[in-house]
Amino acid sequence: MASKQPLLRRIVIAFVLMTLVVSGGLSLSIVASVHFVEEHLVSQELDRELNIVIQEDLHRGQRPRVDSSTRFFASHLAEYAVPQQFAQVRNGFSEVVEGDQAYYAFKRTQNGQVFMLVQEQNEFEAREQVLFDVVLAGFLLSVVAAWGLGWLLARRVMAPVIRLANQVRHRDQLHALAPALAPDYPDDEVGHLAAAFDSTLGQLRQTLERERLFTSDVSHELRTPLMIIASSCELLVEAQGLSPRQREQVQRISRAAEEMSELVQTFLMLARAKPEESRQGGSASLAEVADEQSKRWAPLIEEKGLQFQLIAQGVDSAQYNLTFLRTVMSNLLRNALHYTEQGGVRLILDTGGFRVEDSGVGIPLDQHEQMFQPFVRGPEARGEGLGLGLSLVKRICTHQGWAVRVSDLPPQGSRFEVNLQG
């Protein structure tokens, strides 16, 4: 899985890790070299001195000629008996540590006799410890220096990227008059990124402009025929000689034209760039919109043999966008009508929101989120819709900062809850 650390931090971490590996390897090499040289050189020196003692001094009957820090032992000479502390030393070079005392020991077994030189190494060990302390301090300082230098270099390397990110974040790049970014950068990777951003942004501007013009043109062109349809329906309703069946069809056409007009206005407002720019469509309270929609949908719900209830459980005096709130409530009531065959539908008002509850077929739990996707319909699809109603509800709520969720309503049915306070 890709790291989620900031790029600047990743550069610093990589710099420090590289220093850890290089400096750590170098420090370990120094320590290993010191131990190797110590063992090799001291072993050679003690071997040479032991040869002199055995072949020259003992052979001539003289006392071993060794310095004050070195002692000679031999198993067959009582005055040079091997102490118990060195009895288990292996042949060749060894280091013996007892408390604060440290010794180099070189042992040789010759003709069944044991010869040994033991040399104090306290001074050498002290110098060796100083060397190791210096190596450790150098290692730690190199890591700290790597962190500081890595941070400075990373800041310099990342400065153009940070600058580009701030320009993209804080400037209104979708504005047609926004200047291009690429001319501010050299012809390197960051400059290529800025050029790619300019190119992509240009295509996005063209797409948004085409969408804006299309939405504006469609809205303008559809309003005229819709007005003609609405006025023609009014004339037909007032006309004499229509049968009840014909009058019912005219009313259906009138309702469809009204709904289409509202949808055109809704889509036009949704196409605007920012929610605060959506000032058209008027404003109304929750109670006013609920009263309007209940008068519109209650007859259709009761005509299907269902009960409709408008219940006020709280008082909400806030003002909301009339077009958006009307569309959300209307779509939820239509959805409840289509998916309910028995029982009833309830529109419940509360402070800061409302609920639409039905006793219909319900929605499986694993499909609750999918129902708000475009062109998704439930397993018991009803009506002639394309599965865009709940998707439109979700878009409006997101646009306005509202929240909508669906839940089961025992023993059967669904509850759609809209929180107008987000």
From TrEMBL:
SMART domains recorded: HAMP (SM00304), HATPase_c (SM00387), HisKA (SM00388)
Entry EC no(s): 2.7.13.3
Subcellular location: Membrane
Top enzyme class: transferase
InterPro entries hit by this protein: HAMP_dom, HATPase_C_sf, HATPase_dom, His_kinase_dom, HisK_dim/P_dom, HisK_dim/P_sf, Sig_transdc_His_kin-like_C, TCS_sensor_his_kinase
Annotated organism of origin: Pseudomonas taeanensis MS-3
Protein name, entry field: histidine kinase
Location (main, coarse): membrane
Domain of life: Bacteria
Reactions catalysed: ATP + protein L-histidine = ADP + protein N-phospho-L-histidine
Domain HAMP: 155-209
Keywords: Kinase, Membrane, Phosphoprotein, Transferase, Transmembrane, Transmembrane helix, Two-component regulatory system
Domain called Histidine kinase: residue spans: 217-422
CC terms in the record's Gene Ontology section: plasma membrane
One Pfam family linked to the record: HAMP
Listed GO MF terms: phosphorelay sensor kinase activity
Transmembrane segments annotated in the record for this chain: 12-37, 134-154
